[in-house]
Amino acid sequence: MTDVSLGRTKDGAAARSATDLYRAVWRWHFYAGLLVLPFLISLAITGGLYLFRDELDAIIHADLKRVEIGEGAAPVAPSTMVAAALEAVPGTAVKYTDPTDPGGSAEITVATADAGKTAVYVDPYDGRVLGTLPDRGTVMWTIRYLHSLKYFGTAARTLIEIAGGWAILLVATGLYLWWPRGRGGGVVTVRGAPRNRIFWRDTHAVTGLFVGGFIVFLAVTGMPWSGVWGGKVNEWANGSNFGYPAGVRTDVPMSNVKLAETGPTTWSLGQAQLPESTAPASAVPQPIGIDRAVAIANDLGLHHGYALALPSGETGVYTASVYPDDLSQQRVVHLDQYSGKPLLDMGYADYGPLGRALEWGINTHMGQEFGLTNQLVLLAACVAIVLLAVSAGVMWWKRRPKGSLGIPPLPGDTRAFRGVIAILAIGGIIYPLVGLSLLVMLALDYAGTRLAGRMRGA
């Protein structure tokens, strides 16, 4: 064989190898899109809305959340507001939420025997009840629960972890398929007209190029909320010191009640337990009352808009917690209900390095860390994700053979799958549920390929 023939043989083998690898990547990109794109559309729409939760709730529920400030008006005592709330909704007051600004209302959470918890909105200047909603019954809480699939139970919420892992795979394989390889068009420009498949192919590729990094960021920063991975990493990041970050002193009596049971809290404090109040032994215990507790919280400098959970039982504590846009202002303070002494006072600076990093990611994920710029950039990313999904669907519809699902063809040499499967295995180790779903998909793909081969040979 001549040198020329050997060169041609080597070139042909290299070309076939490249084609086989391209087909292997394309096939798994298709599978990832099939699984993830419906979730991405839902997450993008609900997430884009939730970025503006404060602004939208202030408009939608303006009659409950906003108040008129009369000239020389001064706030009434918190106990007066609680009394008004209980007169409107009989039950037990369990939480007082401080107005976020001078024009905001106070919110009293009342536990009732029949209707569960009810949020009662009160004008802080005259103690007048403005109206009620079920606890966490605002439109934005509904959007949040849709975003996290909380309405659909624990099993459905595990899909968030799986979707997040597959979204990362989608971006990685998509970047490989986008790679120019000498092409001039469809790299950063869109060719053709909407009636042509090439237009949708280029729209999908170019949009994916610009939004891929955001998809990975949102997938990774959304993982702390997942059931399996998020729960285990939370334990590892924050140790086992009653659920508080390592280094936070908890040398006071602790209860079995978790901070998360009193209301929304940060990811880092999801397991944190409440300390216990100690009644004085020499006299009949006299709680300090909500007015004094609010005054102490204000004196301690908590950011306005904090929630004050009221004591439950003789050993309960007042828990003031606030999680504003500014991470440095995050804070949780537990007060002894008899002495008013802070039993635990901690903030963002007390979290461990991993806890601080994850909280920063979560804060940015929610559009809080960089103000309006953060919101607008992520809103643009959410719109682009929807466009990415729509263009994928149109492109597939125009490409698919009649009467077929249009799964990309198998590579001629199935060894091309080895590199792809190795990458999948790494992702599966990091995210266990993703790894399990990958094994299921591999089994289904193998079984489907064998069945199709038998049918062709019949």
Give a written overview of the molecule.
The chain is of the alpha+beta class and 458 residues long. It contains 13 helices and 10 strands. The protein has helices spanning 3-50, 53-60, 62-65, 78-88, 139-148, 153-178, 197-222, 228-238, 289-299, 353-365, 371-399, 417-430, 432-457; strands spanning 92-97, 106-112, 116-122, 129-134, 254-258, 273-275, 307-309, 317-322, 331-336, 342-347. The strands form 2 sheets. Strands 4-3-2-1-7-8-9-10 form an 8-stranded antiparallel sheet. A two-stranded antiparallel sheet has the order 5-6. A hairpin with a 5-residue loop joins β9 and β10 (342-347). The protein is elongated, with a radius of gyration of 28 Å.
Features:
two-stranded antiparallel ribbon, 13 helices, transmembrane helix, transmembrane, elongated, PepSY domain-containing protein, membrane, 458 residues
